[in-house]
Amino acid sequence: MSARILVVDDILANRRLMQAKLEAKYYTVLLAENGVQALQVAETEQPEIILLDVMMPGMDGYEVCRRLKGNPATSHIPIVMLTALSEASDRIRGLEAGADDFLTKPVDDFALMARIGALNRYNAVALELRKREASGVKSGALSEDENEALERGANILVVDTNPRTIREIRYPLEAAGHSVLTLEEAEGRSALMTDPLDIVLLALSDQAYDPLRLCAHFRTTGSTRSVSIIVMAHDRDREIVAKALDLGATDVISTPVIPEELIARVATQTRRARYVEILRQRVDKGLELSVVDQLTGLYNRRYMNNQMALWLRRSAQGGSPMSVVSADIDHFKAVNDMYGHEAGDRVLQEFANRIMVNVRPKDIVCRPGGEEFLVIMPETSGDLACTAAERIRRAIAAEPFEIDSASGKEIDITVSAGVATYTGDDDTAADMLKRADKALYVAKSAGRNQVKSVAA
Ligand SMILES: [Mg+2]
Fold first, then answer.
1. Ligand 1 mean position to 27 CA, how many Å?
2. What is the pLDDT of residues 17-73, one digit of tens each?
3. 1-141 architecture in CATH?
4. How many A from CA of 95 to the centre of ligand 1?
5. Tell me, what's the pLDDT at 136?
6. 174 is catalytic
7. What's 301-453's CATH class?
8. Which residues cross the membrane (predicted)?
């Protein structure tokens, strides 16, 4: 898969140069010359990777990075910061802003392609898992527990024959809350090791063993197959680093190791690996975590509740008030009784289609259950919501529903709907739903096939 890469740099010559390098490797390049443009392109084009210059007039790279990571629509896109600053603290600032990696300018081609290759492999796994999740959790939003799991200290195995290097990297890692084990300690305690390894730190330069053999071993052995391998190597040992990356090493760090960089890279790799693990578990759990109703493709009750809470919070924080439309198919039980459940399912599907083509993109259409539907209308006044509900009602009544494709049998379907609007600070999702249902009841009592709203 050839990735689309967004290159953000304020200097035209830099953009051109990077574009040429990437296109030579068959990547597709998108360009942005400032932070504002970068945010727009990232959201609309959804590139696979973003290369982000730090020093830009106006919004600098750190700020762009924070905003991209703060927006659910772009938070999953890996960001590589390009910094002309050689101070370790400046590079690490990028990782703290949420960047996934960084490169120092002038960008070294080898390092650039190594990082992009690693991110590409990671993306491929994450994308596949997100797709398989069937639930359309497009934002990649994580629960609090899951976020906590991403930040927990890592179990790290250090493979290096030089005891001095081990000491030098052990202290800062343990101070940062990680558990460190050498190969000898691991062998001695293998029976006691219950927590799976997160990371192998593998020294490539000046070693007595064959580091590439070890790299391949970790990659192919069951218990360490999904571990992140960070190789540590001297800048002169490029060739062996390239081979290690080919064998599945996930990241590279230059020796002598700078502790801050080591800690930042360990944190990034741990987060990435655990994110993939979380997605994997979600796929396993499957439908339980699904947010989509399988019959109609609309959002289910679980997602509805999440979104109600979210938009209520935004309304309370001073956004325009939200509204909800509770809709219920009239005499639906009779459809099932007279024509069977298959016909009933077809009605539900067609009903869902007609709602979907009659709402705005920002509206959230849910099927909490049975013949009940709920449309969450963010930033929508009660009047506007009533007009929208009326448009849906007409679309349902306008044409009969086909319930059998063989015979072409059609029946008339109508819908009743109740509208409720956020009333202020102490309003709750439960109260809003109650008011919408009350309005729906009024519409049913008044003869069905109509829209009602009730004052709070
Ligand atoms: Mg610049």
1. 22
2. 999 999 998 899 999 999 999 999 999 999 999 999 999 999 999 999 999 998 888
3. 3-Layer(aba) Sandwich (3.40)
4. 18
5. 44
6. no
7. alpha beta
8. none
